[in-house]
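hey so i finaly got around to running the thing on Ribonuclease R from Hymenobacter cyanobacteriorum. pasting the sequence first so u can double check i didnt mess up the copy paste, my clipboard has been acting weird all day
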Amino acid sequence: MNTPENSRAPRAKREKPEPAAITQDQVLRVFADNPTKVLAYRQLSRRLGVTTKGQREEIFAHIKVLRKNGLITLLQNDEYRLADADAVAAALMPSSARKSGKKEPSPIAPPRNRSVQAEFGQDPIVHRRRSAGFDYVDGDDRPERAPSNTVIGTVDLATPNFAFVVPEGTGEHDDIRVFTDQLKFALQGDVVRVRLRSGSRDGRPMGDVVEVLKRVRPEIVGRIQIQGTLGFVKPDNRKVYFDVFVPPHLLHESRNGDKVLVRINEFPEDSSRQPVGEVIRNFGAAGGNEAEINAIMAEFGLPFEFPSEVEEESEGISEVIAEDEIARRRDFRNITTFTIDPADAKDFDDALSIQKLENGHWEIGVHIADVTHYVRPGTELEREGKHRATSVYLVDRVIPMLPERLSNGLCSLRPHEDKLTFSAVFELDENGKLYESWFGKTIIHSDRRFSYEEAQERIESKEGEYAEEINIMNDMAHKLCALRFKQGAITFETQEVKFRLDENGKPLGVYVKERKDAHKMIEEFMLLANRKVAEFVFNLKKTKPRFTMVYRTHDAPEPERLQTFALFAQKFGYKLKLENPKKISTELNNLSSEVMGKPEQNVLQGLAIRTMSKAIYTTEPLGHFGLAFDHYSHFTSPIRRYPDMMAHRLLEHYLLGGKNVPVEPVEEECKHSSAREKLAANAERASIKFKQVEFMADEIGNTFKGVVSGLTERGMYIEIEENKCEGMVRISDIPGDEYELDKDNYRIVGRRNKRIIQFGDEMMVVVKSANLLDRTIDFELVDDRPDHIKKREADERKQRSSEPRGYRDHSTGKGHSKGGHKGNKRR
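ok and heres what it spat out for the 3d tokens, dont ask me to read them lol
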């Protein structure tokens, strides 16, 4: 394998040093040395040089004890801060000093009276994860001390009626409830100063915004309504609590009912007036495919095109591969190589090669497009790729991270073309046992482009071009997968909804994408490459600080959230034993097997996934709980993910003998990439919801079988089994009784008949309406009762809904105030 003529990279070593135990004093000392800082679990792990699951579990245990003893405080999620400096000083005092009663100098310097900005920097990590930006407008210095009854924080819109302001600082204030008429037109993410009120609501402090310090994005997407010569934009986002006035000269030929992007250029001081804006982009008549998808792009701040300088730069790159470049690379052009991708894919960023070795083992090459060969630091291409950070896959289009010239051309591993790649090459036997690994720059020549369907045919029939090679790799992939699950990987998977669209983007059908062996085979080899690249870099240096690398990490779920999920699962008769942290994955996998094929499968699996922590990019090697890997990176998709480009650059740098890279700039890029990934996922979900509503608009009056997927005081959500479209049955429309929500037991209950409806129950529903503008679907339950009973109940509902408050029933002489007596109380 790693012969002198092809060896350009050191080989990953398998031996690992015995890790040292993490003590409680070590954890406490980190807080003592940083008395004014908010520290997340990941930061603690990095400072303490954590490398194993055992050490991570030790830190969790120590944090729990320190919290119980009042030495540290939980602020939000997994972020903590020193609670009692004197108590910590006593805890860290040498035992001899404690016995003698002598007072040692405190190891913790008291925090100086200084501004939040000076104390935490421009981007403090406080209380809740959110975007950066806490400076005063026009760069004014922040005052050393704000008035005692005001708090600076970030707006988090909750409903059209109120928002929460998340305070900066150390968590001494809870989130502050502010009604929208007292927000001064602040929007999501804006930084404001709030004056606290004397009272509270629902146990939360209340306040009024007295000043908007920074407006993050004063642009709104919505539908414009023209009244005479004046325009009013009604926002698509239901949490935006005001319309925007557009004067005639700023309408720019917009017509009534158009979907537009408006930029607000005047925010009035008087809440009785409306903000004034200008139409800066018109998407066309609301409800149309182009208008709605473009509006989703604008709503999430996605780019519509590449800047001209980026396109020009990409067009200027030569297609010719220089001979001296080929000479620097390991040559795979004469080895059987092919790609397997979706049938409609155009960017092929990974290929597999296979050849049998003299010792009877197999050499499997995972070849990844060498994007960083073409996208150089300091170029416009690099700046744009870093900003976008990810390709976004909406239902009917892709918003690529890189221009088409690279993503579908130079970097795409198209068949019958020489292509530059960065490869991870493995020596495995037929049982999937790994013997050797090699990493380095390569050149390949793909012999065949397979769709997943074509590859699956080879697996099932054992016939066709390259059928033997595909089946050998498929058998290995099964062994690799079995080993992952044996080591604790989680089997829960989300179901991916796909659409069949006509030439105008109208959905002709909705279906759930089925993952077969061909998909899983590719996935297993990509997982192997990502894991081994991460392990290789981690093991290059045995002492701290380790070499900086981009890791994809996934924390173990929080115990409180797991317990909540366990209580929910228990309502369906499933018992989870979560006492042993090492058995959590086994318990979840057993549950996944038990619910397979049952009505509650999607509900429980979906909730289990939401119980898990979110995977993020970071420089801290904390492992991946869901995959059961100690170290994991993203290396295999650099055409569509910027973190993969970062991993390529770092790996190449270390293979060439480079010194350690500073961690701070890489960590900042990881945070940006994680945020962009979240934004992309939200935009993708919005486009899927729109297409589901558009599809169901042609199904009005048709009957479907579904399951209860959500419960609120307004109604219950039903997910149709065959196409995963979700709509609501209003609680007031459920026939046969009056129902109310029993939120503690995740169900609704009839007041008279005591009928119980809960998560996972099967229901037959009729499509009542589909609102494209609001992206909502309304169902009604199939009612098989006799017509005269249904008519009588409808008349009674109509009568009750028309009764005024304080209605008096003259036939009985009894009166009732709002809501009436218990027998007639409307819920």
